[in-house]
Design goal:
The chain is of the alpha+beta class. It has one domain: 2-Layer Sandwich (Heat Shock Protein 90), CATH 3.30.565.10. The chain is built from four helices and five strands; from the N terminus they run βααββαββα. Helix 1 (26-40) packs antiparallel against helix 2 (44-64). The longest helix is centred in the middle third of the chain and has 21 residues, at 44-64. The radius of gyration is 17 Å and the shape is globular.
Length: 153
């Protein structure tokens, strides 16, 4: 039997990507996956902020896009970058939240909770694909956690 490789060190880069359909269950599945990945990699301190921000972006993807979307988690110690891509090329307009508005708080929440964020439209490619990517970054404070053999199994 081939042995498993050792778990990545906390400071080593890693990346996960999940594609999800235009379905109202998608954001919940993405949140559960994000929580599992961050917990397994010892990034519990980022779970709540990352879950909320990812939920905002993925919910808007299924609401305003006409096809599937994807979320990408990229760890480059000490920064986690979460990117959400969809097929709608229209970048959202930042709105000042108010009691009269039903929505429009997503970018305001990104401003408040993310260390950095941005977005870009993806121009039409040779096969007619276009869309946008919105991303945010969260920095991890403090020393790396001790590796846990139980999480590696």
């Amino acid at each position: 039997m081939t042995p498993f490789p050792p778990p990545l060190l906390f400071t080593e880069p890693w990346e996960y990507e999940l594609r999800f359909p235009r379905d109202p269950r998608g954001p919940g599945i993405v949140r559960a996956t994000l929580r599992a990945v961050l917990t397994a990699h010892g990034l519990r301190e980022l779970v709540e902020r990352a879950s909320l921000l990812t939920s905002e972006l993925t919910t808007n993807s299924i609401r305003y896009s006409d096809k599937s979307a994807s979320v990408r988690l990229l760890w480059l110690h000490p920064v986690l970058r979460v990117s959400v891509s969809d097929t709608n090329p229209e970048l959202p307009e930042p709105l000042r939240p108010s009691a009269e508005l039903d929505g429009g708080r997503g970018l305001f929440i990104l401003d408040v909770l993310a260390d950095r964020w941005g977005g870009c439209a993806i121009g039409e490619e040779p096969f007619g694909l276009s869309g946008k990517t919105l991303w945010f970054e969260l920095s991890c404070d403090g020393p790396p956690p001790a590796p846990s053999p139980a999480l590696a199994a």
